[in-house]
Description:
- The protein is α/β, with parallel strands linked by helices.
- The protein has 2 domains: 8-76, Winged helix-like DNA-binding domain superfamily/Winged helix DNA-binding domain (Arc Repressor Mutant, subunit A), CATH 1.10.10.10; 80-212, Roll (CBS-domain).
- Helices cover 41% and strands 21% of the residues.
- The protein has helices at 8-20, 25-32, 36-48, 67-76, 96-106, 125-132, 162-172, 200-212, and strands spanning 52-55, 59-62, 89-91, 110-115, 118-124, 156-157, 176-184, 190-199.
- The longest helix has 13 residues, at 8-20.
- The two termini are 19 Å apart.
Amino acid sequence: xxxxxLSKRQMEILDIVKRNQPITSEHIADKVNLTRATLRxxxxxxxxxxILEARPKVGYYYSGKSLISIMGSFIKNINIMDVKSVPVVVxxxxxxxxxxxxxxxxxxxxxxVQSKGFLSGIIxxxxxxxxxxxxxxxxxxxxAMIMTRMPNIIYCEADESIYDAAVKIIEHxxxxxxxxxxxQDEKGMERLKILGKISKxxxxxxxxxxxxx
Length: 213
C-alpha cells in the first residue's frame, strides 16, 4: 500500500542520489537537465520527508528510510491528547435508564462511570442491551450493577500516541478507550482521573486530516 505518492521527477532525483551519493544539487540539476531553482522544491520535500539527508558542502545522501516507515514514525508521534474527544461520564448511582437516555442523546458507544472524581467503570451498548432484555427495573437499578470495573478496564495515558491507542483497540476489540492520569486518593490509593477519550472514530478522523493536509 502506498501512503505517499512521489512525483516522477522526485523518483528520478531519488534514483540519482542513490547511485551517486553524496551528490550536490548542482550535479543533480545537470543530470536531469534542469536548473537548481527548479529542483529546489523537490529536494526540499524529499529532505523534509526524511528520505534524503543534506550535508553542507558535501551534498545529498539517501537516508535509507522508506515512505512507509516515515509515515509510521509520523503516526507514532501524534499524541492522543491532540486528537482526543470529550468523554460521556456519569456517576455510579445514575440509573441504567438515565444512562441509556444519555448514551443516545450524546450519540456515544461507551459511557464512563466515575466515583468521587475517579474512573470506576465503563458501560457499553452491549451491556445495556443485555440488561434490558431481562425483567430488571432499569429505572431504579444503578449503573454500578452492570459496569465493567478495574482491573478489566483498558485505558491510555496522556503520553501515548494514536498508534498505541489503535493497537490496544484492536487487541482488546473495543470501540474506545478512556485517556487517564494516574493519581492518588485521600487514602493514598492509586486512582485514575479521566482526561478524555480516544476512539476508532477519532483515530479515523486524524488519518483523514493527515490525508487532507
